[in-house]
Structure formats: structure tokens, C-alpha cells
Specification:
Rossmann fold, seven-stranded mixed β-sheet, 12 helices, 9 strands
Length: 375
Amino acid sequence: MRNKKFVDLFCGVGGLTLGLSNAGFAPKIAVDIWEKAELNFKAYFPKVEFLKLDLSDNNYRDLLVSQIKKVNPVLIAGGPPCQGFSTLGKRHDEDKRNSLIDSYLDVLKRVCPLFIIIENVPGMKSMSHKSGTDYPTHIRKTLERIGYQVATLSLNSVEFGIAQTRKRVFFLGMLHGVNQTGSPPFSELALQLSSEMKTKEQKTLRDAIYDLPRLTDGEGEESLLLDGEEILNHKIFKHSELLKKRLSFVPYAGGLQDIPRKYLSRHLRKMIDGEYGSGGFVKNLYGRLVWEKPSGTVVAGIRKVTCGRFVHPEDNRLLSVRECARLQGFPDDFRLSGSITEQYTLVGNAVPPVFGYVLGEIIKKLSKLRTIHAN
């Protein structure tokens, strides 16, 4: 395919942009509303036009559509904020962030690039749209009315060479589909192509971070050398004495239940006692990772400690930002700027670049098939 220009909406730090770039696509415009995303994105992609816009605003969408049409991209990709759908947060049908999907669909309707990608969390499948259907049905039907054939792909990063279990839903759309006589349906073909890219071996935490310098709380630097190569953001924030005391009781693969009750707050004791429900998340609180398995999903609020299993396998500390970035699949030269809390948020909200790469490769194959059928 000759035209490989693309636009990334809700780009965040640039995970999707990086993955699509690795697949040979050329980023032209990126959009996000957060100034920290702008700062970090522009540092790594200085030649890409960055627009700091609120896409829920009609006037800003008019401006964006005008800019996109000048570029004439083959692809528009992006993941509207998922906090309203995430099972890790307080899910609300009326969360205003959920409406950004409709803002995104409006842009797609007005531009109609050949390919589109929409990314979100699996939790969106059970959320209701104001139209009366669930979100996946709403998205698919809207795209079909515009003229797209749509494939819904449920991808897990651990199946593509990343040492992290991270499940995401992708809607892949293509104008003027490829399923001519004798060809499989578009959705089946896209699923087949994604399956062909899965790796045979699963990477572990050891594969991803074991070589990084061993640190305790308060140690590390924003930039250090490892075998002559610069490593960025491998710095541990200063833990409180109480946190270090709690972590000292957590054995390998252990968690909150291993900490003596006298060191726990009333809130944590209530969690253990099931007063907030019997959800399985409790077993991962203050959880110590193990070398022989991949990590769970890296999230934005790691510094809160109670967001999941993110304690280093051997050291009494939380994972560093760099360790999280490696679990997401970012290269060591990808610098994250801002406070440590902001860095955790940026990397935790990012789309693993491998997803962009996989989808980019699928799009190139679909484009080739479309050209063959057209001829």
C-alpha cells in the first residue's frame, strides 16, 4: 500500500503510534487533551503534529476534521478513555468519558478513511449505550452504516511476546471489504491474520525486567547506564516506613493476607474480612510478583499499592516506571517525564505498542488482498 499515513486520536504517551510506526505506517497527527501526554508524545515524536483538543466539543471536532482531511490518512486509530468501562474502577453508564466514543465515531463518519481502529477494555462489552444497545453493538452498527466492514478482535498482549496479561478489544474497520466470492468473511479473515501473529512461547517477568539494576526505595535515577546503554525512569519513590514494614511480611507470590493485622488499617482489615464483597481482587493487593509468570495488567494507579499485584519479586518495593514500561513493551529509550505519579499514569494508560504493530501488519495484508480483488 502506498498511502501509510495515519492519525492517532486519544494518543496518550504514544503506544499505538509507536506500534503502527514499527509496522511501517507514518504518523501525521496526534490528539490528546492532557498536557502531560502532549509533553511526552512530542518528545518522542517531534515531527508529528500534536493537537491538544477536547473531542467532546463540536467546534474542536470541526477543526480536527479539517486538519485530518488535509492529511488524507489511510487510517484513523485511537482508544477513547476507558475508565468509564474498566472493571477496576467505578463503572457508570452515564460516565461522560463514555460519550467520547460517539465523538470518535462522528470524526470517522466525516472523514471516512480506508481503515479505522477503535481500542478499549473488555468491560465495555457489558455496558449499555444510550441508544439501548450495548457499546460493541452500537459501534459496529454505526460503522456499518457509514460503510465499513467490521471485525471485533479480543487481543491479549501476553500472546504477542509481552510479559503482561493485558486484554483489550479492538474494532477494525475497512471500507469496501475484501470478502469477494471465495474469500472468508472480513471478520473471520482479520481473526485468522491476528492468530497467525501469536508467539509460541510466553514471556515471563524474568525475561522482561531481571537485568535491570536492583534497587530499594528512594534509589535509582531518571537516567542510568546498563552495559553502556542508557536506561530511563528506573527510579523508586521513597516508601513510607509503614509500607516497607507491610511489604517485609509479604512472601514470594504472597499478598495482603500475609501481613499481620496489627499493621493494617481498618480499611484493609475490612477488605480481608470480605466486608466490601468477595471479589478476587483482594488476593492481589500488596501482591508480590513471581519471576516465572507474566505480570497482570499494568494500571495507572500503581503508586496507590492497592491497585493490584505490583510488588517486586524480591525487593520490598513497587515496580519502577521503567519496569512497568518494559512490561508494556516500550523501548528503554522511551523517556517518560513528569512526577513519578504522572509517569505511572502515562505508562499505565498506554496501549502496548505491540498491539499497534499487530494491527498494522493485519491492515497491510488486508490492503493487499483488497488490491488483488479489485484487479
